[in-house]
Amino acid sequence: MILSPRWFCVESGIADNPLVLLVHGFPSQAYSYRKILPILSKDYHAIAFDWIGFGFSDKPQPGYGFNYTLNEYVSSLESLINSLGVDKVSLVVQGYFSPVVVKYARKHQEKLNHLILLNPPLTSKHANLPSSLSIFSNFLLGEIFSQDPLRASDKALTSCGPYKMKEDDAMVYRRPYLTSGSSGFALNAISRAMRKELKNYVEEARMILKDESWKVKTTVCWGQRDRWLGYDGVEEFCKDSKLKMVELPMAGHHVQEDSGEELGKLIAEIVGRRVQL
């Protein structure tokens, strides 16, 4: 798959099977879905990718074709899905990139079999980044900390829930920051964009999901031990918006890390009940 810029993707399953696209959160990688891909591969064509600026995808210098705005991420997701050449797709997205995917889905409801949101920001209290992420947008400290592999990967992934990272896994997340300064520059740029735009994107996502014109079957999977996004108001919003709600009591913000096998089986069950060929 060749796109401009280039995306890093991991595939499993047979290409003729229904497509499930796995979208990581901020900050993370496709690697976070490593426990889920084998489970989905039995009945689906599962693809996990690194967003532009993350993991092993390209990291353009800001101002040279990609500025890491949330609108650009919506457009880049559209380009990626179009390049796959499929009529239908189920989308699974985690965390702070959920509003980006919801905005894409609003324009392309006819393409979606199902939307599964993993600990998405859904309330007005969720509209600001936690301090462990917003620090990367700081004018001086952000540029320094975003070049620190331990702060940019380990701390960002383990400060939001019970997840305890094994050293082998930690090295995968650290590697982009160890091999190139462009990873840190990209983290700094997207952190600034998130800090500036997240509030409006969360509010827009709330409006989309509550609107009567929203026809996509949507499930929210919520890790109850999330230290970044509080649970207050989430259940009420899902009820008012007629979204299905599934609670995972032992998982934190990065649900796929804490409860990967359980989540994989859950995704397969949800998509299997509603898939349209």
Strand-helix topology:
Blueprint: E1 9-12, E2 19-23, H1 37-40, E3 45-49, H2 70-84, E4 89-94, H3 98-107, E5 112-118, H4 131-134, H5 141-145, H6 149-158, H7 167-179, H8 182-210, E6 218-223, H9 234-241, E7 244-248, H10 255-258, H11 260-274
Parallel strand pairs: 2-3, 2-4, 4-5, 5-6, 6-7
Antiparallel strand pairs: 1-3
Helix pairs in contact: 2-3, 3-8, 6-7
Kindly list the characteristics that best describe this protein.
14% strand, Rossmann fold, 277 residues, alpha/beta, 42% helix, 7-stranded mixed β-sheet, 7 strands, 11 helices
Summarize the structure in words.
- The longest helix has 29 residues, at 182-210.
- By secondary structure, this protein is α/β, with parallel strands linked by helices.
- It has helices at residues 37-40, 70-84, 98-107, 131-134, 141-145, 149-158, 167-179, 182-210, 234-241, 255-258, 260-274; strands at residues 9-12, 19-23, 45-49, 89-94, 112-118, 218-223, 244-248.
- It has a single domain (9-125, 198-274), classed as Alpha/Beta hydrolase fold, catalytic domain (Rossmann fold, 3-Layer(aba) Sandwich).
- The model has no long low-confidence stretch (mean pLDDT 93).
- β2 (19-23), α1 (37-40) and β3 (45-49) form a beta-alpha-beta unit.
- α2 crosses α3 and α6 packs across α7 (167-179).
- Strands 1-3-2-4-5-6-7 form a seven-stranded mixed beta sheet, sandwiched between helices.
